[in-house]
Amino acid sequence: MFDTRITKLFGIKYPIIGGGMQFLSRAGLVSAISNAGGLGLIPAAMFPELDDLRKEIRLTKTLTKKPFGINLTLFQHPRGVTIEQYIDVILDEGIKIVETAGRSPEPYIKKLKDNGVIIMHKTPAVRFAKTAERVGVDAIAILGMEGAGHPGMDDVTSMVLIPLAAETLKIPVVAAGGISNARSFLAALSLGAEGILMGTRFAITQESPAHPKIKEALVQAPETATALLERSLGNPIRALKNKAAQTILELETKGATSDELLPYIRGEQGKKAWIGGEIDAGVVSIGEVVGLVHNIPTVKEVIDSIVSEAQTLLEHLTTISGTKQAKR
């Protein structure tokens, strides 16, 4: 059940993808998602040393024989590592699934496709999705403003973006942003998506390397616990309203420069928060859907519950529909 063009494209059991999360999407979490029937993604940008990316890919291969992929953000990477160098590692290691994001993937399409790589491009806007489709990607992940990561400057919700993308594009659409359970999974499919991409829900699982203090704090967080930071830099990020976030917002209000913001948004500060458990140390990127997450299950329990409960919901909706028709 729930076979779609996405399950066929990626060779996975369920149309459920784990977002490539900085600090968190390591071999353990990525392999758990793939082993449970979804698709895990390793973010290349997490590894400023190319050999470390190779090691993580190889470790993941020892933990799963199921498909997994690489998230490739198309911005300049730390320590001068180029996109081309990351792609060389991806191809050398035999990876056949890549999620691109950040900029148009056009300069890299030919090399990836010539080597048999399936490309999904993640974007917060349908106009960018149309460009990505035109240049040859195989699928689109459309990110609503509810989502973590970088949901763009347009402030358009998933409820609008998903059906708009589905009716505009010919290639399959994956819904991202605001999805965590069977209800939102089924809603995304009903809006025209053929799969979902979740980050926040998988961040709060047993296999996630996030510090227990962070997990517990997020379980207690309401739906109002996030804010959009870095709008002044033109690349907003949704994050937990911790002390670091409040400082960043105050500085932005005062017109702070990127250099003035850097001490608070740099990656090592975020790592202290996510991995070190220093909750207020840095940016904790998380989606509004955190308000719907109330436990810390295994990845398999998350995916199994989404699928089984979605089937039950479908049966319930079918019953309601049948009852209404009988009364007419």
> What do the pLDDT scores average to?
95
State the end-to-end CA separation.
31 Å
- Individual helix count: 14
Q: Biggest sheet, in brief?
A: 8 strands, parallel
Keywords:
TIM Barrel, two-stranded antiparallel sheet, 14 helices, 14% strand, 8-stranded parallel sheet, 328 residues, 2 domains, alpha/beta
Topology:
Blueprint: H1 5-10, E1 16-18, H2 27-35, E2 40-43, H3 50-63, E3 68-73, H4 83-92, E4 97-101, H5 106-114, E5 118-123, H6 126-135, E6 139-143, H7 158-168, E7 173-176, H8 182-190, E8 195-198, H9 200-203, H10 212-220, E9 226-229, E10 237-240, H11 243-253, H12 258-265, H13 267-274, H14 299-327
Parallel strand pairs: 1-8, 2-3, 3-4, 4-5, 5-6, 6-7, 7-8
Antiparallel strand pairs: 9-10
Helix pairs in contact: 2-3, 8-14, 11-12
Put the structure in a nutshell:
Helix content is 45%, strand content 14%. With 328 residues, the chain is an alpha/beta fold.
